[in-house]
Write a structure and sequence with these properties.
23% helix, 7 strands, 5-stranded mixed β-sheet, alpha+beta
């Protein structure tokens, strides 16, 4: 049975039901999810209780996993998660919160700013797949922007100019902000987004 996708934002974002991504997917299920990403740019899947291994297996349906080296300052011996997973938490290898003055913690604060995952790489990420395992009851929002919607909303001179410009991956325009959505990511919710994110991005 193919998963069902319902649009939950006026411009983009689809909510997926009828699929367990912790199990091996059929080619039809993979094709439906890729079509959903093409249409909605962000997909949200509720109540998916995934292990790291299951998340990586799911991610490999869409291409090889990105080698995250060079994307953070955590030393290999200090990594909390295995290769193939990007750690965007505030936890150290011992499972305890990082000290306030920790360089790793300060570096990871950059994930709180608008950004597009892996856009600086020679081969940018195709998708980023996030799974929230433990989220603080207050805050914890993740915001997404669809640059296609921002372009569609732009007018006249700005649109003509954008056809000949290169883009910086370090900022988000006002037009993009008008086409953004805030998604509450609680434990057990999984969201995939096109060309931005973390955890197990694929090429």
């Amino acid at each position: 049975m193919s998963p069902s996708i319902r649009q939950i934002h006026p411009v983009f974002v689809g909510e997926v039901s009828g699929i367990d991504i912790g199990k091996p997917l059929t080619p039809d299920e993979v094709a439906a999810l890729e079509a959903g990403m093409d249409r909605y740019a962000v997909l949200v899947l509720h109540d998916q209780k995934l292990t790291d291994e299951q998340q990586m297996a799911f991610s490999r349906n869409f291409g090889p996993l990105e080698d995250a080296r060079g994307g953070n300052i955590t030393k290999p011996e200090d990594r909390r998660l295995q290769t193939g997973m990007n750690d965007v938490s505030n936890l150290g290898r011992d499972g305890q919160p990082l000290a306030r003055e920790s360089r790793v913690r300060l570096f990871n604060l950059g994930n709180m700013l608008w950004h597009s995952d892996s856009s600086f790489r020679a081969t940018p990420a195709k998708y980023s797949l996030l799974s929230a395992r433990v989220v603080n009851p207050a805050g914890g929002n993740t915001e997404f922007a669809d640059m296609r919607a921002a372009y569609d909303r732009s007018m006249g001179r700005r649109r003509r100019r954008s056809r000949t410009c290169s883009a910086s991956t370090r900022s988000c325009t006002r037009a993009a902000r008008s086409a953004c959505s805030t998604t509450r990511t609680r434990s057990g919710r999984c969201s995939a987004r096109r060309a931005s994110g973390s955890c197990a991005p694929t090429r």
